[in-house]
Amino acid sequence: MSLGVVRSLGVGRFLDWGVLNARGAAGGVLVFWDKRVLELEGMEVGLFSISCRFKNCEDGFNWVFSRVYGPTLKRYRELFWEELGAIRGLWSDPWCIGGDFNSIRFPNESRRGGRLSSSMRRFSEVIDDLDLRDLPLQGGPFTWSGGLNNQAMTRINRFLVSEDWEGHFKGAVQCTLPRPVSDHFPILLDGGGVRRGPVPFRFENMWLKEEGFKDLLKGWWQSLSFNGSFSFILAEKLKALKAILKSWNKNVFGQVGVNKKVALDKVNFWDGQEKLRPYHWRNWKLER
């Protein structure tokens, strides 16, 4: 994966990244982290995973995060389990693994149900052998849908954590998020360490796509006038421009946060309908 592709995803100056390149059309893995929060102390890239050893900048706590993409073919699955064991042998730090395992543990993790298979038992054995815990999933029982009319649904994505990792990040939970585009539900692992505060002002890229915005911006900047030192004038003009942009944004785009919530509520509704019953293209056409 090229640096240009990564930057197109919105990587800022405080973000660093590591990548496991895709094999063909599948299997690519990308990990981002905030350098103000985490210091990278080591990285290992395998066939099915990328693992990073981090140190928390706030408290110096060392831990390992592994992002995985498990094989879709059963004949490679044992190689995947062996790779996870090798990571455990490399580092003994608290450990968190997340991603698409392309495996399920129990029949109820698939909409079609069925019996407990040998591959399910093997997955659970690996989790036990590595002393990992499968955190309960909030927000719904499945993380992927596909097949004809999206009737197949399974829980192939998850986070697994060691006991000492969970002990440090007390109250950690994983939950599914709305999925506007993908056939996978994004999963949020909340370690309880995010500090809330006032939302900082941000220049939105969508403004640049609005016709005539650049001319407006130039006119606003040239119309602002203050007296004082260069640094004082610059600071005051930026402060005044921020107020103008906030007002313009509200008039042109409305309450973005509210609009986003409404859109995500709609996505959540249809995701919920899909989880409750098989969904057919014919029904969708009728309900429109």
From TrEMBL:
SUPFAM superfamilies per record: DNase I-like (SSF56219)
Any one GO molecular function term: catalytic activity
Domain Endonuclease/exonuclease/phosphatase: 21-184
Gene3D superfamilies: Endonuclease/exonuclease/phosphatase (3.60.10.10)
Annotated protein name in UniProt: Endonuclease/exonuclease/phosphatase domain-containing protein
